[in-house]
Amino acid sequence: MRKNRLTLIITLILALLAGYLIMNRSKSTLHEGIRDFAVADTAAITKVFLSDKSDRSILLTRQADGTWQLNERYAAHPENINTFLLTLSNIAVREPVARAAHNNILTLLSARSVKVEIYQNTHRIKLGKYKWFPVEKLTKTYYVGDATMDNNGTYALLEGADAPVVIYMPGLRGYVATRYSTLENDWREHTVFNKKLPEIDHILVEFPSHPEESYKVINRENTRLELVRLSDNKTLAAYDTLQLMSFVNAFRNIRYEALFNDMETERRDSITSPVPMHVITLVAKDGSKQNVKTYPRMLPEPEIDVFDGSTVTFDRDRMYALINDDEDFVLIQYFVFDKILRPLSFFTRGREE
């Protein structure tokens, strides 16, 4: 009797232990997935490389001053970078992919996904709070696929894992797949001009169709501004100093609305072939130069002006522009650019020369 009771007790203990191990293994596997996808310390990230099956790639590199560079060429959009880093630190595993869908999701990920490689500053040797030999290291690699049917999750696969999972970002209504874009346009900073007075040597504003309104503003040792009429190269003595200073200060933050480099070449050429409306050139103290050429934007259909009944054929809110030595074709707003497109008469009106 006592022997049977002992056998029963041992059997119950073994059963409980087996159940605990199975449950613990299952929980630890999911927990490991959550931990492996998220990056706890985004401040240690030095670069992120994204690539897709169409041979498009994005390299985001943290600079010494904390800003980010895109493809070792452009400034990366700070707001997009912040959103992306927030995503990297907060993504979690919602659930494993159902066994019945396992093979289909793996096939989808192999055909259409974004490979994510995250590099961080770490140390070769760590002993408690002591660390030696800093090094940049690839710390995480995973693949991000399409959204789930409910659009609240994204299929993903951690490199080295044998099963895909559904990842999500707690608090986000939607899916995170779009945040792993491999399109360069989605990451580029929209800044056209970002110069303060001490950085500026001179500014040229030209009106090709109205040369009498063209002028040059010269920064004289950051103490005064000199206004030169380009039509006769004459330095003007009478002008509104406050308005001219406001004009120069506006170059601190001038941005475009959208990048249209993917517009059909024929259409783009037809827009930019006429003489531009304005040409703005900023020459910095370090010798670097930035320029903008603006062009009117025709409306899809003519509109009637509600005030005078006239027919309006060109957009009164937006125009096109070539920037970065004519390399980039962008859409800009009059609301933003009007402050740096003042004609010469704006500063000299009602004043004797």
Chain-wise SSE layout:
Blueprint: H1 2-37, E1 45-52, E2 57-62, E3 68-70, E4 74-75, H2 78-90, E5 92-96, H3 102-111, E6 114-127, E7 130-147, E8 154-158, E9 165-168, E10 191-193, E11 200-206, E12 215-220, E13 224-229, E14 234-236, H4 241-249, E15 254-255, E16 258-259, H5 265-272, E17 278-284, E18 289-304, E19 311-323, E20 328-333, H6 334-337, H7 344-348
Antiparallel strand pairs: 1-2, 1-6, 2-3, 3-4, 5-9, 6-7, 7-8, 8-9, 10-15, 11-12, 11-17, 12-13, 13-14, 16-20, 17-18, 18-19, 19-20
List keywords for this structure.
nine-stranded antiparallel beta sheet, single chain, 2 domains, 7 helices, 353 residues, alpha+beta
Helix content: 10-25%
Give the total of domains.
2
Approximate shape: elongated
- Runs with pLDDT <50, length 5+? 20-29
The tally of helices reads 7
Question: How can the largest sheet be summarized?
Answer: 9 strands, antiparallel
Task: Record the strand order, biggest sheet.
Answer: 4-3-2-1-6-7-8-9-5
Average pLDDT taken over every residue = 89
Gyration radius, to the nearest Å? 30 Å
**Count of beta strands:** 20
| N- and C-termini, Cα separation | 121 Å
How would you describe the oligomerization state of the chains in this entry? Answer: single chain
What would you call the structural class?
alpha+beta
> In what range is the share of β-strand residues?
35-45%
- Give, in order, the helices and strands: HEEEEHEHEEEEEEEEEHEEHEEEEHH
